[in-house]
Write a structure and sequence with these properties.
InterPro entries: ATPase_P-typ_cation-transptr_C, ATPase_P-typ_cation-transptr_N, ATPase_P-typ_cyto_dom_N, ATPase_P-typ_P_site, ATPase_P-typ_TM_dom_sf, ATPase_P-typ_transduc_dom_A_sf, ATPase_P-type_domA, HAD-like_sf. It is a multi-pass membrane protein. It is found in: Membrane; Vacuole membrane. The protein has 1134 residues and is α/β, with parallel strands linked by helices. The chain has five domains: 226 residues, Calcium-transporting ATPase, cytoplasmic transduction domain A, CATH 2.70.150.10; 69 residues; 307 residues, Calcium-transporting ATPase, transmembrane domain (Up-down Bundle); 159 residues, Rossmann fold, CATH 3.40.50.1000; 191 residues, Calcium-transporting ATPase, cytoplasmic domain N. It is 45% helix and 14% strand. The protein contains 38 helices and 30 strands. The strands form six sheets. Strands 12, 13, 16, 17, 18, 19, 20, 21 and 24 form a nine-stranded mixed sheet that branches. Strand 3 and strand 4 form a beta hairpin. The longest helix has 40 residues. It is elongated and about 130 Å long.
Length: 1134
């Protein structure tokens, strides 16, 4: 399917079975004509199809937001596209009646139910009014015949009014745009500014200033260049990843060939492209077809459609010709089973016929869903939090740099009078001050953060693919970690999408699947192993000979094609009763008579001539009805016939009721043997054949089977895991209330005290009422795609992070509206896959738990890195600030290249090390983080603060008292260089050991848990250690290292001070979070007040150079909090 074409995917006979559905008829008395009619709270009668019953006078009024579809200038046809859309939004018999039925629709579209459109049509020479079309007795106005406009294009007016069966083209995003999108990140922009300033000043120091002969070459420009390289890497990795994914999806769509459709035009059958189908076309339907456009059934034989992928209705829907429906409506007959609507995207299971297209292109159901998936991707929660954090850090860095610059500037100006240096040297000294200030900004901004996020996501998506999660949108896995709600489709997602025999009762022999019955009943395999040959033969005769299904091929394997009930019974015979070939089994039996399924008698029958000369009538159908026709029961082992007593009858009725309460479809198997055919008491039809219906009495009851679309293995366990992780799982399905309740209870979704609602009832609630009921809502039954989308949007409005799962076309709007959309890789439609962010390659709901674990692992990786990064940056900023102020030459203790190693390379390695921790089951033992929760928790701030206290104490002790402690003569430049090298080495080793502390974000002590499974971490730490040793021994002049490195004592001091970070962290973890929060709240108040003043001042200065914007509170002058603590422990600083 090309991206700019509209066509449901070509069907390769897909006979996936679905669960039973008896959707209800919805009656409405809504007083607001602009709202889609909904059901009242009172119970409603059951029907085979979900259809709206309302006042025809209001059925064609536009829904809010669709008014433009009802307004067409110079429309020569009777109806607008919007009016025809009302037929299927949802299915509406009143709209059908208001449009004059099939005859009125054909007249209004200037088509014919026999001949179709005219091949000679171009412009429409005369106009037909709405009243003329819907009133069959009103004569149309006589119009003088006109010569056709030879210059006009074929079907010009029809295409102008109703459109083509194509979608507006969707252009692939060019690579430059993806690069620009990747670059438009707050952190990267702040980094760019800092890098450009640092690089410019560094180049000036290197190239624009004269240096004494023999002095080391300045390398101040290296830091700015390195940051630029880091920015380029992040942008290119992100953009190329997105570009490759988009290219792959474009290639996937390009492989979809357009298919051909058979239509009738001018009374002749012709083949046209699916993209050339127009409103008013008479389209032919055959088994296996995927319906290309919406329309109304005209005529045919036994048309049944599987609308599960389009509407969520899991049962096959029998179609009734439009004229027959209109006659029934005019006569006031029951609307039960009246469904003339053909929905685009549905599949034809049985029968042949024709239907008239009413909505094509963007107006069809399929087209609306395709257009709804073309929305912009929202920012993820982590992106939003990181953006705010980056702005806050930028303010911190800018403020610190500005304060330091003015302090050093005042010192510089105050010392000018006694400064004997030449003017050029004084200018160079001023530039050094400016470079130190810029260095503070560079050190403060966590440039490794976007790289850490990208690396964590890339690693997670690669590993997730091995675990059957194909991540189409890179950041979706990160969002999944914070998911608080999962809205799952039932059919094909929670269930197997295949009707299966799950229970059975044959006398005293009963079986059940373990998921269906836990009372100790034997399994199907165990039961089948005990079936005697005579009973096995009778079962095969009942389900294989008495059947209209047949064998077909799907993707190279043999499958059964036919009604879902019959294919389920045949699968039982094939899997457990030795049915090898359906055709061979039928050839081995002599069938004397067949009675097709009779909807009045709720059964079908076949007569077989037995090998001993007798005849056997085998009947299958609705078990409760067939039981009433039986007077005897057969022994399952011997087939001996015994009278059916009252106790046995009640036991069978109880079994049938038990199956029905579990939402199983019950099928009874009965038979009777006759010595001759036809029997003496048989009645005959007008055609002379035996009326099998006359023999449906005094039959022999053989057994009852329960059929269901079973729950996927592992789904109840997966749901329980999600709930334990604080994620609410809701089932959203088009199935009826009873089936939805039973499946939801089996999946552990529906619990006592939970709310089950129907879609129309939910839809009519106000936003306030929705918000009140949603927290307890567990099942939304009989829901339309719009209901799913509304639920998702309301959940998001309540601050939830919503994941939606689904496999059908009807799930696409909700998949796209959700924060994370999961589609099924095997059974999912292409529309669902395109709308989703993650594709479950094994169609297993349990794989969502894998995505949840990896999503949390990504968030943890970012938080671990952030905890490490901020600890390093705060220490480095304070160290640079204080030492630059105290130094006579106004130079910080750590040189620019040393800071480069600490601030960039160490961060990159740390990102790799901390981003590659695989998740464990324990990661699900905590609730998800909500959007409004801080990125840095109280526990993290406690660890950051505690580590900074220790590190600054050690470094300042070495800086200010190191000479005295170690007996160094600091007037000796060599000894001073040794002390500086010792400070640098100690600082780095403290970061190395602190990496281990940051493997945990909680207060537990085992920082080495799972380290043996993360070989990346071990290798990276070893690499950092190796490089640090190498720098100390051979770093020399570029790194400002003492020639010859350090001696044993100095190495011991460095490593011991570094190692002590680990026991210090244990003490920090034992310090109560609540105490720390209280201390931070008190101590932080003055800091926050000063900080708020600084931020407002910086914002006002910024406002002088930029236009006013209302995009965010930060840009409007509101300062982000400097102290972020968990709201559960203590209030955040404001």
């Amino acid at each position: 399917m090309e991206s700019n074409k509209l066509s449901p995917p070509t069907l390769h006979v897909n006979t996936r079975q679905r669960a039973n559905s008896r959707a209800d008829t919805i009656s409405s008395s809504t007083s607001n004509p602009f709202l889609t009619p909904v059901s009242p709270l009172t119970p409603v009668s059951t029907s085979d199809v979900s259809t709206l019953i309302e006042d025809p006078r209001t059925s064609l009024r536009p829904d809010p937001g669709t008014e433009v579809d009802f307004e067409v200038e110079n429309n020569p046809f009777a109806f607008s596209p919007g009016q025809l859309n009302k037929l299927l939004s949802p299915k509406s018999l009143p709209a059908f009646q208001a449009l004059g039925g099939l005859e009125g629709i054909a007249r209004g579209l200037k088509s014919d139910t026999r001949a179709g459109l005219s091949v000679d049509e171009s412009t429409v020479p005369w106009k037909i009014t709405f009243d003329e079309a819907v009133n069959h007795h009103m004569p149309t106005k006589e119009v003088e015949p006109t010569h056709p406009d030879t210059s006009a294009q074929p079907f010009q007016d029809r295409i102008r009014v109703y459109g083509r069966n194509t979608l507006p083209p969707k252009k692939a995003t060019p690579l430059w745009r993806l690069i620009w999108n990747a670059y438009n990140d707050t952190v990267l922009i702040v980094l760019t500014v800092a890098a450009v300033i640092s690089l410019a000043l560094g180049l000036y120091e290197t190239l624009g200033v004269d240096h004494p002969p023999g002095s080391p070459a300045p390398v101040d420009w290296v830091e700015g260049l390195a940051i630029c390289i880091a920015i380029i890497i992040v942008v290119l990795v992100t953009a190329m990843n997105d570009w490759q994914k988009e290219k792959a999806f474009v290639r996937l769509n390009a492989k979809k060939e357009e298919r051909e459709i058979k239509v009738t035009r001018s009374g002749k059958e012709i083949i046209i492209s699916v993209y050339d189908v127009l409103a008013g076309d008479l389209i032919h339907l055959e088994p296996g077809d995927v319906v290309p456009v919406d329309g109304v059934f005209v005529d045919g034989h036994n048309i049944k459609c599987d609308e599960s992928s389009a509407t969520g209705e899991s049962d096959a829907i029998r179609k009734v010709p439009g004229d027959a429906v209109m006659k029934a409506l005019d006569a006031g007959q029951s609307t039960k089973g009246l469904d003339p609507f053909i929905i685009s995207g549905s599949k034809v299971l049985e029968g042949v016929g024709t239907y008239m297209a009413t909505s094509v292109g963007v107006h069809s159901s399929f087209g609306k869903i395709m257009m709804s998936v073309r929305t912009e991707i929202e920012a993820t929660p982590l992106q939003e939090k990181l953006g705010k954090l980056a702005v806050a850090i930028a303010y911190i860095g800018t403020t610190a740099a500005a304060v330091l610059f003015f302090i050093l500037l005042f010192r510089f100006v105050g010392g000018l009078s006694g400064n004997p240096r030449a003017p050029a040297e004084k200018g160079s000294q001023f530039l050094d001050i400016l470079i130190v200030a810029v260095t503070i900004i560079v050190v403060a901004v966590p440039e490794g953060l976007p790289l850490a996020v990208t690396l964590a996501l890339a690693f997670a998506t690669t590993r997730m693919l091995k675990e059957n999660n194909l991540v189409r949108v890179l950041r979706a896995c990160e969002t999944m970690g914070n998911a608080t709600a999962i809205c799952s489709d039932k059919t094909g997602t929670l269930t197997t999408n295949k009707m299966t025999v799950v229970a059975g009762s044959f006398g005293s022999f009963k079986f059940a699947q373990s998921d269906t019955d836990s009372s100790g009943v034997q399994s199907i395999s165990s039961w089948a192993s005990k079936v005697k040959s005579s009973a096995k033969e009778l079962i095969i005769q009942s389900v294989a000979i008495n059947s209209t299904a047949f064998e077909g091929q799907e993707e190279g394997s043999s499958v059964f094609v036919g009604s879902k009930t019959e294919t389920a019974l045949l699968q039982l015979a094939k899997d457990h009763l030795g049915l090898l070939s359906l055709s061979e089994a039928r050839n081995n039996e002599q069938v004397v008579h067949m009675m097709p399924f009779d909807s009045a008698k709720k059964c079908m029958a076949a007569v077989i001539k037995l090998r001993d000369g007798g005849y056997r009538l085998v009947v299958k159908g609705a078990s409760e009805i067939l039981l009433g026709n039986c007077s005897s029961v057969a022994d399952f082992e011997t087939l001996e016939i015994q009278p059916l007593g009252t106790a046995q009858r009640e036991a069978l009725e109880n079994t049938i009721d038990e199956y029905a309460n579990k939402s199983l479809r019950t099928i009874g198997l009965v038979y009777q043997n006759y010595p001759q055919w036809p029997p003496a008491d048989a009645e005959f039809s007008e055609g002379g054949s035996v009326d099998v219906g006359s023999l449906l009495h005094d039959l022999v009851f053989f057994g009852v089977l329960g059929i269901q679309d079973p729950v996927r293995p592992g789904v109840p366990t997966a749901v329980r895991k999600a709930q334990n992780a604080g994620v609410t799982v809701r089932m959203v399905t088009g199935d009826n209330l009873q089936t939805a309740r039973a499946i939801a209870a089996e999946c552990n979704i529906y619990t006592e005290g939970g709310v089950i609602m129907e879609g129309p009832e939910f839809r009519r609630l106000s936003e306030t009422e929705m918000d009140a009921v949603i927290p307890r809502l567990q099942v939304l039954a009989r829901s339309s795609p719009e209901d799913k989308r509304i639920l998702v949007l309301r959940l998001k409005g309540l601050g939830e992070i919503v994941a939606v799962t689904g496999d059908g076309t009807n799930d696409a709007p909700a998949l796209k509206a959700a924060n994370i959309g999961f589609s099924m890789g095997i059974s999912g439609t292409e529309v669902a896959k395109e709308a989703s962010a993650i594709i479950l390659m094994d169609d297993n709901f349990s794989s969502i738990i894998t995505a949840l674990m990896w999503g949390r692992a990504v968030n943890d990786a970012v938080q671990k890195f952030l905890q490490f990064q901020i600890t390093v940056n705060i220490t480095a900023v304070l160290l640079a600030f204080v030492t630059a102020v105290c130094d006579e030459e106004m130079q910080p203790a750590l040189k620019a290249v040393q800071l480069l190693w600490v601030n960039l390379i160490m961060d990159t390695f740390a990102a790799l090390a901390l981003a590659t921790d695989p998740p464990t089951e324990r990661i699900l033992d905590r609730p998800p983080q909500r959007k409004d929760q801080p990125l840095i928790t109280t526990t993290m701030w406690k660890q950051i603060t505690g580590q900074n206290i220790y590190k600054l104490t050690v470094i300042f002790t070495l800086y200010f008292a190191g000479g005295s402690i170690l007996n160094y003569d600091l007037s000796d430049e060599k000894k001073k260089l040794e002390l500086d090298t010792l400070i640098f080495n100690s600082f780095v080793w403290m970061q190395i050991f602190n990496i281990f502390n940051n493997r945990r974000l909680d207060n537990k002590l085992n920082i080495f848990e799972g380290i043996q499974r993360n070989h990346f971490f071990t290798a990276i730490v070893a690499l950092i250690v190796g490089l640090q040793i190498l720098i100390i021994f051979v770093g020399g002049r570029p790194f400002g290292i003492s020639p010859g490195g350090l001696d044993g004592t100095q190495w011991a001091i460095s490593i011991v001070t570094g190692f002590f970070c680990i026991p210090w962290a244990i003490g920090i973890r034992y310090f109560p979070d609540a105490w720390f929060a209280e201390i931070a709240h008190v101590v932080g108040k003055p800091v926050v007040i000063v900080w708020d003043v600084c931020c407002k001042g910086a914002s006002k200065v910024k406002g002088l150079f930029t236009k006013k914007s209302k995009k965010s509170d930060i840009e409007a002058g509101a300062a982000p909090p400097i102290v972020v603590v968990d709201s559960d422990s203590a209030p955040s600083a404001q």
